[in-house]
Amino acid sequence: MSLPAPLAKAVDRFRVAPKDLRVQALLQYAKRVPPLPDRFADDRSALERVHECQTPFFLATEVDGDGRVHLHFDAPQESPTVRGFAGILREGLEGQPWQAVLDVPPDFYAGMGLESVVSPLRLRGMGAILARLQRQVREQVDPVAED
User: Fold this and answer.
1) Is residue 147 part of a domain?
2) Which helix (H) or strand (E) is 31 found in, with range?
3) Angle CA(134)–CA(62)–CA(11) in degrees, nearest 5?
4) Minimal CA–CA distance to 129: which of 34, 60, 65, 77?
5) How far apart are the first and last CA of the chain?
6) How many domains does one find in the chain?
7) Is residue 116 part of a domain?
8) What is the pLDDT tens value at each position of the chain, 147 positions in all?
9) 48-49 vs 69-74, strand pairing mode
10) Contacts of 123 (CB under 8 A, 6+ apart)
11) Can you give the residue range of the structural domain that contains 73?
């Protein structure tokens, strides 16, 4: 599996952690999701909703002039599992080259043991978050690309 080093580190942490510590780790990652930059907080039309999530979850990606990806997430504080997954993605993919982000397998989180602490419906939502952000990146690096 081809993962950027920061994301691989997070996956490994979860994989070896006992079940009760996985929940705590998700809660810690949830706290790491920064607030939206003013440009998104003031104009939410630039955010895309991920409808597959049970929780109202919104995201925006940006690819800068150096080809690095920047992630912006918005999810309620009272939804720590989805915020935790967003925190994992942000820590693992923020500032990575766009190709590395596109190379992340859609089921990269399968080996993390999250299925023991998160419902299948939430896991599908997590997969949808990754798919959506990868599509946004793809559209920015190849505007004629279609999903």
Assistant:
1) no
2) helix 19-31
3) 50
4) 60
5) 22
6) 1
7) yes
8) 689 999 999 999 999 999 889 999 999 999 999 999 999 989 889 999 999 988 899 999 999 999 999 999 999 999 898 999 999 999 999 999 999 999 999 989 888 988 888 888 888 888 999 999 999 999 999 866 554
9) unpaired
10) 109, 114, 115
11) 5-140
